[in-house]
Amino acid sequence: MLTERHYTMKKSLIAAVLFTLFSLPALAAQQTVTLSVPGMTCSACPITVKAALKRVDGVSAVDVRYEERDATVTYDDEKTSVEALTQATTNAGYPSTLKQPQAKQE
């Protein structure tokens, strides 16, 4: 026969399991990368690049800068990858690569 204490422990365990299951999506890591997009030749190009990147599942934010010829993308790394992002810009006619951070000048 279950005692009050066993019943309370069982409820607590069930609650902990449910909490963990519903918290898993929150554990997905948001990543931010900057892509070099050298093929942007006019001020209208960023519109196309941004639209292509926003269509990628898992992308939550896109900032495209024409002057720097780059795009900064925030995405869920469980839903997409850098390769998928560069493929999206390439498919839109603007090949891109991961922009490497510049070394600090001393």
Automatic annotation (TrEMBL):
The residues that cross the membrane are none
> Where found, per UniProt?
Periplasm
Query: Which Gene Ontology cellular component annotation is one that this UniProt entry carries?
Result: periplasmic space
GO terms, molecular function: mercury ion binding; mercury ion transmembrane transporter activity
**All residue ranges annotated as the HMA domain in the record:** 31-97
The secretion signal range is 1-28
Record keywords: Mercuric resistance, Mercury, Metal-binding, Periplasm, Plasmid, Signal
Q: From what superkingdom does this record's organism come?
A: Bacteria
Record Pfam families: HMA
Q: What does this protein do?
A: Involved in mercury resistance. Acts as a mercury scavenger that specifically binds to a mercuric ion in the periplasm and probably passes it to the cytoplasmic mercuric reductase MerA via the mercuric transport protein MerT.
Note the NCBIfam families from the entry. Answer: MerP
Q: Which family does it belong to?
A: Belongs to the MerP family.
What is the protein's quaternary organization?
Monomer.
Name of the protein this chain belongs to: Periplasmic mercury ion-binding protein
Source organism per UniProt = Halomonas sp. ZM3
